[in-house]
C-alpha cells in the first residue's frame, strides 16, 4: 500500500465519445460549473482545466471534446485535441454511457487508450438511467485490451448527475496520482480564459434553446470585455453559416437571442461578481467550421 500521507497532484484527462457525461462529471467533482453541458453531442470544444482541491491532493481535470468519427475541419481538430490531451498526463478517466449500446467510436477509443501508459479508471456512467449495457463495455475492453487488461486500475459504476459513487471515484483518483506539490493556488477551481468561459455560457444557452436545429453550425466569439463604472460591458458575435440560420438564432422579433442573453447573464455575473450588459450580434460566415483563421479566432489552438 502506498503512503497516503504524502500530498498528491496530477493532471487527469476525461476521455470518451460525445454526450457520455464528461462535463457533468467534471462539474460534479469540482463542485462548480466549469464546463458547459447540453444534450447536444460535441458541446465541449476546448480543453477545460478544472481543479479539485482536497486536503490531501489536487486533481487537475482536462475535460476534452468527445471523440467521434465524423469528418470536417472542426471535428478533425476536436479529435486531435482529445488525443493530445492524453500526452504527459498522470491518469485517465475513461467515461462511458452504460444506458447506450457501445458504438463504432468505442472500439476506436479503446484502441487509442491502449497506446498510452497512464493508469486508467473506467467510469461506467449514467447508472441512474440504466445498467443495461454495463457488461457490454466491460467485455469490449477485455476483448481489445487482452494482455493490457491490468491497465485499468478500477471499474467504477457512477451517476455523475445523481452523484452515485463519486466519492469512490475521487478516492481512486487520489490513490493513483503521484506524490508532488500542487500546481495551482488552492482557491483556484478553473484554468480557462475568461472570454472562452463567457462564449461557452452563451453557446450553451443557444444549445439548450435550439436543440438540434442549429448548434453544430453555431459559434460564439467574445469580441470585447470592458468595465464601465459598476458594470461590465460584453460584446459577443454569434457565427452561423446561412441566412436561414440567422433567422432562427434571432427568433421572431429578436425574441430568441434576447432570451439567450437573459439566460446567460446571471451565470456571467456570478463569475465576474458584477452587473453585466451583454450585447449579442449575429453574423453569417459561410463554412466557418472549415476556416482555420476563424477556428483560431474562436480560441481553438490549431
Question: Briefly, what is this?
Answer:
The protein is of the alpha/beta class and 302 residues long.
Descriptive account of the structure:
The protein has 302 residues and is α/β, with parallel strands linked by helices. It folds into two domains: 8-176, P-loop containing nucleotide triphosphate hydrolases (Rossmann fold, 3-Layer(aba) Sandwich); 193-297, GMP Synthetase, Chain A, domain 3, CATH 3.30.300.20. It has helices at residues 22-30, 73-84, 104-113, 134-145, 166-176, 194-210, 243-250, 255-272, 292-297; strands at 8-15, 48-54, 57-63, 91-97, 120-125, 152-157, 190-191, 219-228, 231-240, 275-284. It has a seven-stranded mixed β-sheet with strand order 6-5-4-1-3-2-7, with helices on both faces. The chain has a three-stranded mixed β-sheet with strand order 8-9-10. Strand 4 (91-97), helix 3 (104-113) and strand 5 (120-125) form a beta-alpha-beta unit.
Global outline: globular
Q: How many domain modules?
A: 2
Q: Whole-number radius of gyration?
A: 20 Å
> Averaged pLDDT, please?
82
Describe the sheet with the most strands. Answer: 7 strands, mixed
Helix content: 25-40%
- Biggest sheet strand line-up: 6-5-4-1-3-2-7
* Superfamily (CATH H level) name of the largest domain: P-loop containing nucleotide triphosphate hydrolases
Number of DSSP helical runs: 9
What is the succession of H and E elements?
EHEEHEHEHEHEHEEHHEH
Amino acid at each position: 500500500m502506498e503512503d497516503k500521507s504524502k500530498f498528491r497532484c496530477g493532471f487527469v484527462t476525461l476521455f470518451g465519445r460525445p454526450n457520455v457525461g464528461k462535463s457533468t462529471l467534471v462539474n460534479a467533482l469540482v463542485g462548480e460549473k466549469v464546463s458547459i453541458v447540453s444534450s447536444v453531442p460535441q458541446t465541449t470544444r476546448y480543453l477545460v482545466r478544472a481543479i479539485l482541491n482536497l486536503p490531501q491532493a489536487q486533481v487537475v481535470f482536462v475535460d476534452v471534446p468527445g471523440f467521434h468519427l465524423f469528418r470536417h475541419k472542426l471535428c478533425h481538430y476536436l479529435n486531435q485535441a482529445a488525443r493530445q490531451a492524453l500526452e504527459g498526463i498522470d491518469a485517465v478517466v475513461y467515461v462511458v454511457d452504460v444506458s447506450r449500446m457501445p458504438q463504432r467510436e468505442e472500439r476506436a477509443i479503446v484502441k487509442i487508450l491502449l497506446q498510452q501508459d497512464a493508469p486508467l479508471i473506467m467510469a461506467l456512467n449514467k447508472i441512474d438511467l440504466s445498467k443495461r449495457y454495463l457488461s457490454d463495455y466491460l467485455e469490449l475492453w477485455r476483448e481489445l485490451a487482452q494482455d493490457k487488461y491490468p491497465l485499468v486500475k478500477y471499474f467504477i459504476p457512477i451517476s455523475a448527475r445523481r452523484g452515485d459513487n463519486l466519492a469512490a471515484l475521487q478516492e481512486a483518483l487520489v490513490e493513483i496520482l503521484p506524490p508532488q506539490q500542487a500546481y495551482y493556488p488552492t482557491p483556484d477551481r478553473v484554468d480557462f480564459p475568461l472570454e472562452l468561459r463567457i462564449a461557452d455560457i452563451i453557446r450553451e444557452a443557444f444549445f439548450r434553446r435550439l436543440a438540434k436545429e442549429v448548434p453544430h453550425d453555431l459559434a460564439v466569439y467574445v469580441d470585447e470585455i470592458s468595465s464601465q463604472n459598476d458594470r461590465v460591458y460584453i460584446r459577443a458575435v454569434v457565427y452561423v453559416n446561412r441566412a436561414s440560420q440567422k433567422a432562427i438564432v434571432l427568433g421572431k422579433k429578436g425574441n430568441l437571442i434576447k432570451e439567450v442573453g437573459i439566460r446567460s447573464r446571471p451565470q456571467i455575473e456570478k463569475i465576474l461578481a458584477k452587473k453585466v450588459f451583454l450585447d449579442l450580434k449575429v453574423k453569417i460566415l459561410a463554412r466557418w467550421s472549415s476556416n482555420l483563421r476563424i477556428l483560431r479566432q474562436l480560441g481553438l489552438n490549431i
